[in-house]
Write a structure and sequence with these properties.
Chain B: It comes from Muraenolepis orangiensis. The complex is a heterodimer of chains A (about 625) and B (about 575). With about 625 residues, chain A is of the alpha+beta class. Helix content of chain A is about 50%, strand content about 10%. In chain B, helix 7 packs across helix 12. Classes of the chains: A alpha+beta (about 625), B alpha+beta (about 575).
Chain lengths: ~625, ~575
């Protein structure tokens, strides 16, 4: 048995501060990239907090616990793990100064800190949602998908510009995301491409979450990485790209298509086997020809003889197609994969509008486009071509797109479970809320005091949420300090302190965001306060007016318009958007993590083989067993 | 459980570009690449301690592939350069040198990284718009009616690879061959969608470079004992029927799937297959096939049989040549022995004759019509230079093909870089206020960033000189000039060379020069093509591929931005 390591507040703070220092390097739009290397020589680039934290492979159990919490959070929302760590560190610092006032013994200090953390969590679970609903949400806008469904630029121009429709909410939300993930140089192009991709895949009648979920699931098959070109060559191309080339020397334009399993032969006898096999092959090819097939996709590898037979029959063959691509293809084309070559019928055949070789980078692929669009509504399948100077950049870009989709999904997702983790209703209550509803009304009956707010609320990125909530919390604590009926004494002072603590910690986020440009910090703060002073309803309506006209200007009054410029020339109307729900979830996750970190009082180093673990360890190393 | 070994914590480097260790590695790598640049570049010999042959090269592709850097940041540069080169074949070293120069200059300028990144991006946009303009002063429209510019382009690629060890005449010869091969692969008859043919390169060690040649059709290496019958020698242009097999005819069992084969007692599989082979032979003879080609091995008995019937047999063609041969002759590769050969599977060839290159005997085959397939036989003294020459020729061919998409070229010899730098200075200073406000930085920051970018471009031009020559720039066209070192030693006043780096401007037409490193008042550089004087003298002598250089410029800026943006390195040792 190893010596027991007592955990005190200082240790916890130190651990979190180390994480903070790492994460801070890539925080916000001014942050930089982090480069990982593996011993295999693989290079990866990332600004995603989640990847950075997991790549650190930390030893310290507390740090691992924090990383795991951050990881789980960003798994849901696709973003926010850096803010998670920063907020946690800020809260811990606040708690430390408060709990260790005077020279208190470390154990008492720890106990006090634990108590504060628990109060914070209780506050977060019970009151924070209402405060946000009452004070922050009125200043927000509903994420509108209007422009995304309404106007689709056919084969949009590949370069930037098209400012007018760039102002749509979704693009701005994406832009804010890509700013922090890819840097401001590429965020414009990538956010536009992602927006276009979504709008092309979305049926106007369906809720956007369907398209988002579909895209997120199939992104691997729907994007093509291309190295050696600058990132500005990223583009969308029509149809699906099958990431294989035609089998040699067959070039013909296909009209009809067949999804085939592997063409197999059954077991044979001796020499006559091959004669028999070729006969049977001829038979299969004959059937295909009878169905008018000119393109054969196959998951397996075909033999030379099969290729030659197909060639004679004028059938192009694409072999070794990835299962995932094949299933996507089947879904899009409506053809069913054939598993036995003897039973190929019309249901295995689909019609394509074109099928042609396409050279992307070093590889030659097959591009297919689907006909009969009226059947699938207005969905026009497109694929994303991701370019970059090297593999690392391309991979980073593709990952960012995936995470962006996840973030949008989280902002769009209105199954109330993720929104209010503490009030889990039985699942049947939650799930019947259809995806089309815009508000969450599940809790209406049980707790009427709760503000009903939309999960799709968005606020301008760059600290607006933090400023607003900061102010709201301060107001809340003041209101609680001087209420007319005197409340139970101990509890109320706790709430005020807790409000103050959280408010201060929140403010540290924009402070770090603008650490290179202190003037902008003041500017941003002033704007959000200006936002508060105005009556909330007029703000919202003003926003909507602006949004409808395409020139969506975020809460800047006419008088302040001239001051609405940051030092880097961006006006607030260019600023991105971020989802309020994601932020709320983030705070709750941080508070929960804080609580669990502070509840640990000792770390035991155990050198046994961890027989309790039945499953092989996956990405997240679960070390909770080591802690008491 | 033994597999659950403890994972090592990762090795982290904070702010790598400020780490002295990293800076030193950067400098070494930069010097290594810079010293290879251009026609006077120094050669590098790479050899492995474990063994294997050593490589002598100055091309970025070969160098970076054989000696890959170990530091992660340098790896990023190397992969960027390699993937650029794999797409465009040219300007690999340009990418690397510009990238390093941008990083160095950004550091010297003392700008905050985000500011310098956005200024670089902005200036890159300015460059690309200028280079795409028609009035661009460093661009030359390619004229396909004369091969002169094409040869210049090819020559620039080949002569910038000093490891090929070519004399000027030899370099010209090879460039002409490259252009000839390129022209042979462009089909003239087919309307509509044009599909380029291909060039097959055959390298022969030993004979002089002057014996290198380009042939329409294919050259297939044949064994010494192959002789052509009299009728081939007498009528070389006669069309002859041929058949091409892609399946092995050696008499072994056919390729089969996972199924099992049960051999009954007494069954003689070999003789059965042998019989089948002879059936194939008989059928070929009956169909009057005169050339019998197989990708793999042909059984000697079958060979013997075919030879007896005056059929020319070629075996072990190799997978690489099957497709060109099928295209050339119009035959369909046969993958089976048992099905009857359909009439359209037969192809036709003509012009059968044997060529001898040094130790190699090659059978020359031509197709019945225009197929766009040609063979370049490259000869050189030894293996090392030959492989470099092969690389150079492939690059030249690729560069020539790229001109079809974008029929223009950029001035070489450092002139594009100096010209572009001067244009940027002029344009950038002119609109400093708008640029600064749109970038969100101060005007001073913008000026610093602009100067850093221009200096980086100029340092690429400077990198062309390795022997201590003095780089100059003229104050009319802003082209790049180099005063060789011995001239400066002898005389007090500098006398510029007769022609600028690209050969477009002669010293007679320029009045003032300045040293490349010095500050000069910005002005709008005149386009040199509008030069008064006879048209023969104002032909550029060095040209760079437009598409390759554009992409290289963008990749270099993007990579430099990326490197500046990297704040943290995590090295996982597991």
């Amino acid at each position: 048995m190893q010596p027991v390591e007592r955990v005190n507040l200082k240790h916890v703070l130190q651990t979190v501060c180390v994480l903070e220092a790492v994460v801070l390097r890539s925080f916000g739009p001014d942050g930089g990239q982090v480069l990982f290397t593996r011993d295999t020589g693989q290079l990866m680039l990332s600004r995603s907090g989640k990847r950075i934290l997991t790549a650190l492979r930390l030893d310290h159990p507390l740090a691992r616990m924090v990383v795991e919490c951050a990881w789980k959070h960003s798994e849901v929302t696709g973003d926010g793990s850096k803010t998670f760590v920063l907020l946690l560190a800020a809260l811990l610092r606040g708690i430390q100064t408060e709990a260790c006032e005077g020279s208190v013994a470390s154990r008492a200090c720890m106990a006090r800190a634990r108590h504060t953390a628990e109060e914070l969590l209780a506050f977060g679970l019970e009151e924070l949602g209402d405060i946000i609903g009452a004070k922050v949400v009125p200043h927000s806008v509903n994420l509108s998908w209007e422009s995304i469904g309404g106007r689709r630029d056919e084969e949009g121009p590949p370069r930037v510009d098209a400012n007018a429709d760039d102002a749509c909410d979704v693009r701005r939300l994406l832009a804010a995301f890509f700013d922090t993930r890819l840097g401001c140089t590429h965020s414009r192009l990538m956010s536009r491409l992602t927006r276009d991709l979504i709008s092309l895949w979305r049926r106007p009648t369906d809720p956007p979450s369907l398209a988002l979920r579909f895209l997120e699931k199939n992104l691997t098959a729907l994007h093509t990485p291309v190295c050696g070109f600058p990132a500005r060559c990223c583009r969308l191309i029509e149809g699906q790209v099958i990431h294989r080339d035609f089998a040699p020397s067959v070039l013909s334009d296909g009209v009809v298509l067949e999804v085939g399993g592997r063409e197999g032969y059954t077991e044979g006898g001796i020499m006559k086997y091959s004669v028999w096999a070729e006969r049977s092959l001829e038979g299969v090819v004959g059937t295909l020809r009878g169905l008018g097939v000119t393109l054969l996709l196959s998951a397996g590898k075909q033999s030379e003889a099969a290729l030659a037979a197909a060639r004679r029959a004028g059938i192009s063959v694409v072999e070794c197609v990835d299962e995932e691509e094949l299933s996507l293809f089947a879904e899009l084309s409506g053809a069913r994969p054939a598993f036995e070559c003897w039973r190929i019928g019309p249901e295995h055949v689909a019609e394509l509008s074109f099928c042609r070789p396409v050279v992307l980078g070093a590889h030659s692929y097959v591009q297919v486009a689907f006909s009969a669009p009226e059947e699938r509504g207005a969905v026009r399948p497109h694929s994303l071509v991701v370019c970059g100077a090297g593999e690392g950049q391309v991979e980073q870009c593709a990952r960012a797109v995936r995470d962006a989709l996840r973030t949008l999904l989280a902002a769009e997702d209105d199954s109330g479970t993720s929104l209010r983790p503490h009030r889990l209703r039985p699942p049947n209550v939650e799930t019947h809320a259809t995806t089309t509803t815009t508000t969450i009304c599940t809790d209406g009956a049980s707790s009427p005091r709760e503000g009903v707010w939309d999960s799709r609320c968005v606020l301008p990125a760059g600290g607006a949420f933090e400023f607003l909530l900061h102010r709201a919390l301060l107001q809340h604590s003041q209101a609680r300090c001087s209420p007319t009926p005197p409340p139970p004494p101990g509890r109320e002072s706790g709430v005020t302190a807790v409000c103050q603590l959280l408010a201060d910690a929140l403010l540290s986020i924009p402070r770090l965001l603008y650490c290179h440009r202190p003037r902008d910090f003041l500017q941003a703060r002033r704007l959000s306060f200006a936002m508060c002073c105005r009556s909330s309803t007029s703000l919202c309506s003003g926003l909507h007016q602006g949004g409808g006209g395409g020139e969506c200007s975020v809460p800047v009054a006419a008088g302040q318009q001239s001051h609405g410029l940051f030092s880097d020339g961006r006006s607030t109307s260019d600023a991105g958007l971020e989802s309020v729900v994601c932020k709320y979830q983030l705070i709750l996750a941080v508070l929960q993590c804080l609580c669990s970190v502070l509840r640990v009082d000792a770390v035991l180093q155990v050198h046994k083989t961890p027989h309790t673990k039945a499953s092989p360890d996956t990405d997240d190393d679960d070390d909770d067993e080591d802690m008491l | 459980m033994a597999r659950l070994s403890k994972k090592l914590p990762a090795l982290c480097t904070d702010l790598p570009l400020e780490n002295p260790d990293v800076i030193q590695k950067f400098t070494v790598f930069k010097q290594l690449l810079t010293s290879c640049f251009g026609p006077n570049g120094k050669l590098k010999q790479v050899h492995n301690n474990i063994g294997g042959h050593s490589v002598t090269t100055s091309t970025s592709q070969v160098l970076l592939q054989s000696a890959s850097p170990s530091h992660p940041l340098l790896k990023v540069v190397a992969t960027s350069v390699l993937s650029h080169v794999s797409r465009f074949s040219d300007c690999g070293l340009f990418t690397a040198i510009l990238c390093f120069a941008l990083i160095d200059q950004a550091k010297l300028s003392g700008l905050r990284r985000n500011v310098s990144i956005s200024i670089n991006e902005y200036l890159l946009d300015m460059c690309t718009t200028y280079l795409h303009q028609d009035g661009c002063g460093c661009k030359v429209k390619l004229d396909f009616s004369s091969s002169k510019n094409l040869i210049t382009l090819a020559w620039s690629v080949i002569s910038s690879k000093p490891a090929c060890m070519l004399t000027p005449q030899e370099a010209l010869h090879i460039s002409m061959l490259a252009v000839q091969a390129f022209l042979l692969t462009v089909p003239c008859e087919t309307p509509g969608n044009v599909r380029l043919g291909r060039t097959v390169t055959v390298s022969v060690e030993g004979p002089a470079i002057a014996t290198s040649a380009v042939f329409p059709g294919l050259l297939v290496e044949v064994p010494d004992h192959l002789t052509l019958g009299n009728k081939h020698n007498l009528q070389p242009q006669r069309l002859m029927k041929m058949v091409l097999f892609s399946v092995s005819l050696s008499g072994d069992l056919f390729e089969m799937d996972e199924g099992t084969v049960e051999v009954n007692h007494g069954a003689d599989m070999e003789s059965e297959i042998m019989d089948q082979l002879l059936v194939v032979g008989q059928r070929a003879v009956k169909d009057q096939v005169e050339l019998f080609v197989c990708q793999k091995v042909i059984h000697p008995v079958l060979q013997q049989y075919l030879n007896q019937h005056d059929v020319v047999v070629i075996e072990r063609l190799g997978a690489a040549l099957v497709e060109p041969l099928a295209e050339l002759t119009g035959s369909q590769p046969l993958a089976s022995l048992v099905t009857a050969i359909s009439p359209e599977a037969y192809g036709h060839a003509r012009g059968l004759n044997v060529k001898i290159f040094g130790s190699k005997r090659m059978l020359h085959l031509e197709g019945p019509g225009e197929a766009g397939i040609c063979t370049m036989a490259l000869c050189h003294r030894n293996q090392t230079v030959l492989s470099e020459l092969k690389v150079a020729c492939q690059k030249a061919e690729h560069v020539l093909r790229l001109t079809l998409r974008e029929p223009s070229a950029l001035l070489g010899g450092g002139c594009t870089e100096t010209h572009l730098a001067s244009y940027l200075r002029h344009k950038g200073i002119g609109e400093v206020a708008e640029a600064a406000s749109s970038l969100g930085c101060s005007q001073t920051e913008y000026r610093l960033g602009l100067e850093a970018f221009c200096r980086s471009l100029e340092s690429v031009a400077r990198a062309l000189e390795h022997d201590g020559g003095t780089p100059l720039v003229d104050l009319t066209h802003c082209h790049h000039w180099t005063v060789p070192v011995d001239v400066t030693q002898g005389q007090e006043t500098l006398s510029p060379p007769p022609r600028c780096g690209c050969g477009l401007v002669s010293s007679a037409s320029v009045e003032r020069w300045t040293f490349l490193n010095t500050r000069y008042d910005e002005f709008s550089p005149a386009a040199a093509a509008a030069l008064p004087g006879d048209s023969t003298s104002s032909q550029p002598r060095v040209l760079d591929c437009f598409a390759a250089k554009m992409n290289a410029l963008q990749v270099a800026v993007e990579t430099a931005n990326l490197l500046q943006d990297i704040r943290y390195i995590i090295q996982d040792g597991n």
